[in-house]
Each structure stands twice: as structure tokens, then as C-alpha cells.
Write a structure and sequence with these properties.
By secondary structure, this protein is an alpha+beta fold. The chain has five helices and four strands. It has helices at residues 22-37, 72-81, 84-89, 91-94, 115-128, and strands spanning 2-10, 41-44, 63-69, 102-108. The protein has a four-stranded antiparallel sheet with strand order 2-3-1-4, with helices on both faces. Mean pLDDT is 91; it is low at 158-164.
């Protein structure tokens, strides 16, 4: 059994406790609860704050958000067809533009990915483009035990992540 892991990163335009990011921060608990209640949700990265804003990657200026889902369809429903999309559509108000900020990859059921693993997958996507090792909703690869051509899940253009 395979699950879908995802990470997305963001570099804030201001400190998290600034007025500029207040609306973003105010929505974190609600959006995280929405994710946890969504069909197909398995796990999400949390830090001492209860969200992941205090978890650091190899680049300490980045905020890291990572989760695991039972399928790409379950994650897609949450990302693009729930209240989450309204927050994501506003990300330019709060975060620098990063060309490739999200990556998807398959993990064995029960595996909890690490931030280091996630950042390595993001680097693979940035350096080589979509592959079975690191992909996007726009160019999604099937789980290792499936044999299917890459598919385009047609993410919203203003929310699409990275090349491919």
C-alpha cells in the first residue's frame, strides 16, 4: 500500500507575528483542522506550536508544510476544492514567489516522511523536473505498484506548483 506525501514551502514577506501576516496566521488552526477532517488525510507535520510554522528546513527562512494522504485525489480535493483554496489564492500577499514550492511523492503506507526527505524531493523536482521520484499535480505519476502514464490533474492555474 502506498500513500502520497506532499510538501510545500514558503518564504514569508514579513515576520510571522507581523500585521502583514496576521490574517494568514489567524487561519492556520482552522485550515489544519479542515485538513485533518478531510477524507483521505493520514498525517501532517506539526511543531511545538501545533502547526508547522516553527519547523525549519535546510533553509531556515522557509516555512514548511508537509502531509500524507491516502491518494492524490484526496489531497487534490482538499487543496483545490475546500476552504483551503481561498487561503492559497492569497499567498502572494504573505509570501515571496518561489517557482517550485510544492512536490508530491509516494511513500509506503505507515512511513512518516522527514523534512530532510521532503526537501531532497523538492530539490529533485527543481533540478530534473517531474518524475516518478518527485512530481506535481500537473504531471502526476502513479504509485510504484501501478503502471500508468503520467496524468494532469488540472490544478487551478493560480495555484499550480512548479514545472510540468
Amino acid at each position: 500500500m502506498w500513500h502520497l506525501a506532499q510538501v510545500n514551502v514558503a518564504r514569508p514577506l514579513a515576520p510571522l507575528d507581523s500585521p502583514q501576516l496576521a490574517d494568514f496566521v489567524a487561519q492556520l488552526d482552522r485550515i489544519n483542522a479542515l485538513a485533518e477532517a478531510a477524507p483521505g488525510f493520514v498525517w501532517r507535520l506539526t511543531g511545538e506550536s501545533g502547526n508547522s510554522t516553527d519547523v525549519r528546513a535546510d533553509d531556515p527562512s522557509l516555512i514548511v508544510n508537509m502531509s500524507v494522504w491516502v491518494s492524490p485525489e484526496a489531497l487534490f480535493e482538499f487543496v483545490y476544492k475546500s476552504a483551503h483554496v481561498a487561503v492559497m489564492a492569497r499567498r502572494r500577499e504573505w509570501f515571496e514567489r518561489i517557482e517550485v514550492f510544492q512536490v508530491l511523492w509516494w511513500v509506503p503506507g505507515g512511513h512518516t516522511p522527514t523534512v530532510e526527505e521532503a526537501m531532497a524531493r523538492l530539490r529533485v523536482l527543481r533540478e530534473r523536473g517531474p518524475s516518478a521520484e518527485a512530481f506535481t499535480f500537473k504531471r502526476r505519476y502513479a504509485a510504484p505498484d501501478q503502471h500508468a502514464a503520467p496524468t494532469d490533474m488540472k490544478p487551478e492555474p493560480y495555484c499550480a506548483a512548479g514545472p510540468g
